[in-house]
Amino acid sequence: MKIIVICCLLFLIQPIFAQSTIKGLVTDQRGQTIPGVNIYLKGTFEGTSSEIDGTYFLETEERGAYILVFQAMGFKSQEFEIDLEGKVLEINSTLKEAINEMTAVTISAGAMEASDEKKAVVLRPVDIVTVPAAMGDIIGAFQTLPGTSNVGNDGRLFVRGGDASETSIFIDGLKVGNAFGTTASNVPTRTRFNPNLFKGSFFSTGGYSAEYGQALSSALALKTVDFPVRNQGDISLMSVGGGLTQTLAGEKSSLTASANYFDLSPYQSLIKQNFDWERAPFGWDAEISARQKWGKSGVVKAYLHTESNGMKIWQPVPGSEDRGQLVGVKNNYTFGQASFKQLGKNDWSYYGGVSYSNNVDQFNLDQLQVRNQNQVLHSKAVAIKGFSDRFSIKTGLESYLYTYEEQLLSEGLSRDYQDHHAVLFTEADYYVSNKLILRGGLRAGNSSLAKQTWLDPRVSIAFKFDHDGQLSLAAGQFSQMPVEQLRILDQSLHNTIADHLILNYFLSKNGRTVRAEAFYKDYKKLLTYEVAQLFPMPIGFDNIQQNGEGYARGWDIFYRDQKSFKNTDFWVTYSFVDSQRKFAHFTEMVQPGFAPRHNGSVVVKHFIQPLRSQLGVSFSINDGYTYDNPNLPGQMNSKTKSFQDLSLGWSYLPKPNLIIHLACSNVLGRDNIFGYQYANVTNEKGVFEGNPIRLQAPRFLFLGIFLTLSKDKTANNLNNL
Amino acid sequence: MKKYSLAIIAMMLISFLTHASNEAYVKAMQKELQAMGSALSPEDLQKIANGFARIATMAPEEWLPEYYAGLALANAGFRSQGGIEEKDTFFEKAKKHAEKAASISPDNSEIVALQGFITMGELAADPNSRGQHLSAQAMQTFNKAVNLNRKNPRAVVMLAQMELGMAQFFGQGPEKACGLVKTALDMFEKEEGLESNDPLAPKWGKDMALQLKQTCQ
Predict the structure, then answer these.
(1) CA gap A163, A170 in Å, rounded
(2) What are the φ and ψ backbone dihedral angles of A691, each rounded to 5 degrees?
(3) Which of A107, A144, A233, A577 could form a Cys-Cys staple with A601, CB 3.0–4.6 A?
(4) Domain A2-95 superfamily per CATH
C-alpha cells in the first residue's frame, strides 16, 4: 500500500529536470552589503546564507510558486514572491534596519547609568561598594562622577552648583523622602540604604525625563535586585558595627531580611576625634524585601526599611572657650514601598506602585526641644504603548501627599501643613533610525497648598556616529517646591525653577569610556530671607521672598579605562562649574559655598591575582569652598584652601565566601577645611571670631569582614550585584 | 467499508507524509550538524545557525534546531576576534534561540547547560567587570542542569571548568574539579557506547573534558 502511495507521489513530483538558481546581493539602505543573512524558501528546508561580500547563491529542485525570505537580526525581514521554473533568477534585496535596543542610540545627556544590562554605562553596580572613598555609601561612589562636588562636611549629593535638596532619590521609580540620615550641622551624613540592595542605578545631573519631578538639579533612580540566585546568609562584622542578612530564593518568589547595628563609640574611643562627642552616633535598622513573579512576565516587589539612630555632640560656639552648645539628635525613620511591572498585550506595558516614608527628628538644643515629622506618600501608575519599534509613548499619573509638622516640645507649640500634588506626565520617543532619536515630554502638576499649577516641557535629541560615539542635546524646565522648613513659614510659596541646557558626547567601546558634557542652568524664583541665627541650626527666618536667581555653567569630562593596563580599572573626572546665585540670606549674586569651581577625582582599582586582592586608590581634589567672612566687606568674600583627599582600600578574598575589606580615608591626614563659622557678635577687639569647619577626624578607618553562608559555599556578598 | 478504507488510506498518507517530512528534517539536521563539526570561523557558524533556524521554522515543535542554532552562535561568540560588542551580539542571538528551545522543552538539562555555556561566553568577553556576578550565575545554571539530569556530561564538564577556575583563583586544590572531569569523561564514553542513541542528540563537549584532564595532570 505504502509503496503504491510512494509511487504515486513520485509521479506527482516527477517533472524535475532542471534545478532553479536564485542569486543576488543583499544590502542595507545605505548600500552596504550584509553578510550572514538567512535566505530561504518559505515552507521548505531549502535555504542559504549571504557571504561576507553580501552575495548569495541558492540552488533548488523545487518548482512552482514560492516565497523567498530574507532574514537577519537587526533588519526587518523581506519577502519576494517567485516562480521557480528551472531558470536563473536574480533577486537583490535591500533590507530596512529594525530598531535594535542593544545597539541603537540612547539619550546620554545628563545621564550616568550603573548597570549590567545596558551598554551606555559609566559604573557597574559592584563599583559602588568598591570605591575606597565611598566607605560603602552609595553616594560616595557617585561623588567620583562628573558634575558632582564633594562637600565633605555634609555628605549628600551636590550637583552642578545646586544644593543638596535639589537632588531627588527614587527606588524602583518611587520617591524616597529623607533618603539621608538626620545629622547635626557639619557632621556628614550617609544614605540610609544598604548598597547591596541595588543592582543598578540611573544618575542624572540634568535634563532628565519627564517621569521625574520636584528636583531642580538631579535625579537618582535606584533599582533593587530582581531575584537573588540562591538561599544564603550573610554576616558582616565591621569596625563600627555588624549585621545579619538572610535570603530565601525560590523559583517564583524570594525574601530577604536583614538587621544591622552600628555604634561609633568603641571606634572613637580608640581613634582621636576632632569633635567633642557626648554620645557617638549609634543606631539600628531592619529591612525586609520580597519579590514575587506575577503571571508570565510580571514582577511584584515590596520593601520595608525601618531604623532608629541618634547622637549627642558639643558644638563649639565661636569666640567662646567652653564646650559650646550641646546638640542632641534622635531620628526614627520608616520607608516602605510596593511596586509592580507587567507586560500587556499589543505592545502595552505597565508599572507603578506606592511608597511611604515617615521621618521623625528630635533635636535637643540646650533647653530647647524640637520635633519635626516629615511624611511623603507617593503613588504612581505608568503605561507605555509601543506603536511600532520606532515610536512609543509613556504616560503616567502620580499623586504625592506631603505632610510636615514642627513641634516645639519645650514650649508646647506646634504647626503643620499638608500639600497634595497631582501630576500627569507624558513622554514620546521616536527613533528616526538606529542613529537618531527624538524625545519630547511634558510634566504637569498642581499643588493644593501653593494653589499653583505648572507645566514643565522637556526635549532631547541624540545622534550616534559611525564610530559609535553619540552626541545628545537636552533642554527642559524643572520645578521644585522650597524646603519644608521654609514652606511652613509661608505656605503660599511657589515652585523654584531651573532651566537646563545640556550637550553631551559619549563613547564606550572595548573597555574604554569617554564622556564630555557642557551645561547651562538658569535658576529663577529662588528663596531669599533674613535669618537671625545660622549656627548650629538656622532659626529665625524672616522676610521670605521668591526673588532669588542664579546660574550655573561649565563642562566636565570623564574617562574610564579597563583595558590599557592589565587587571586595572581606572577613571578620571574633571568638572568645571561657574555658579553665581542670589539666594538664602545673600542680597547679591555670590558663588555658593557648595559649588567649588574646579573639581577632580581619580579612582584606580587594581587586582592582584596571587594575593586574591583588589587594591583601590581614590583621590579627590577641588579648589576650595567659598565662605562669608564678616570681618571683610562684601558677601562670600573668602575661599578655603584646596580640599584634597587620598583614600586607600584593600579587599581580600581568602576564601570564595569571605571578603575582608580595609579602607582608610585621607591617608595623608590633610587638614581639610570646609569653611568657617563666625560668632554672631564681635569680641572686644571688634573682630568676629571664627572656627574652621573640619571633619570629625582627619582619617576614617574602616575594617569589615563579610561572610556568606550558602549551600554551594562559593557565593559571596557581591554575587548578587 | 469504503469509508474505512478511505480512512486507512488517509491515515497512511498522513503517516507517510510525516515520515517523509521527518526524514527531511533528520536529513537537514544531519547536514547542518556535519557542517558544524568542521566550521571554525564565526561567519561559518553564523551560516550554520541560519540553517538550524530554517529547520526550526519548518519543525516548530522540535527543540533541537533552536538548541543547535543557539550553540552555533555561542561558539561564534567564543571564536570571535572582535570586541566585546561583537561577541555580545552573538551571545544575545544565542540566548534568544536557547530561550525558544526552553519554551518548547522546559526543564531540559541540555538547554539549561547551553544557557550556562552562553553565560560563560559573556563572562569570558569581559571578565574584569562581569566576573563577579556572572561566575555565580554560570555556576548556578550548571548546577541546575546537573540536577535536571545527572548523566549530562556537558553540564558536568562545564561545572568542572567553573570549579577549576574558582579553585585556581583561590589557590585551592583542584581535586573537586578534577573529580568532576573524570566523571564527565566516563559519561562521554558511555554516551558514545550507546548504540540506540538518537543521532541528533547533543554529543559535543568531550574535547573540553580532555583539555581539562590535561590541566588536572
Answers:
(1) 18
(2) -115, 135
(3) A144
(4) Immunoglobulins (2.60.40.10)
The yes-or-no verdict on residue A714 having pLDDT over 70 is: no
pLDDT tens-digit readout, A51-79: 999 999 999 988 899 999 999 988 999 99
The rounded radius of gyration (Å) of the Cα atoms in chain A is 30
- Whether B86 has its CB under 8 Å from any CB of chain A: the answer is no
Measured between alpha carbons, how far is A146 from A572 in angstroms, rounded to an integer? 9
Task: Write out pLDDT tens, residues B130-157.
Answer: 777 788 889 889 999 999 999 999 999 9
For A111-710, give the CATH class: mainly beta
Cβ within 8 Å of B, A 491-520 = 509-511
Q: What is the mean pLDDT of residues A568-596?
A: 94
How many whole angstroms separate alpha carbon A641 and alpha carbon A664? 22
The per-residue b/e assignment along A207-240, b for 16 or more CB within 10 angstroms, e otherwise, is bbbbbbbbbbbbbbbbbbbeebbbbbebbbebbb
Give the per-residue pLDDT at A460.
96
Question: Chain B within 8 Å of A655 (Cβ-Cβ)?
Answer: yes
* Residue extents of the structural domains in chain A: 2-95, 111-710
Picking from A2, A35, A719, the nearest residue to B43 by CB comes out as A35
Determine the pLDDT at residue A11: 46
Strands A391-408 and A368-386, how do they pair?
antiparallel
Bridge-partner residues for A522, per DSSP? Answer: A499, A551
Q: Is A304 exposed, middle or buried (0-12, 13-18, 19+ CB in 10 A)?
A: middle
Q: For A455-495, what is each residue's pLDDT tens digit?
A: 999 999 999 998 889 999 999 999 999 999 999 999 999 99
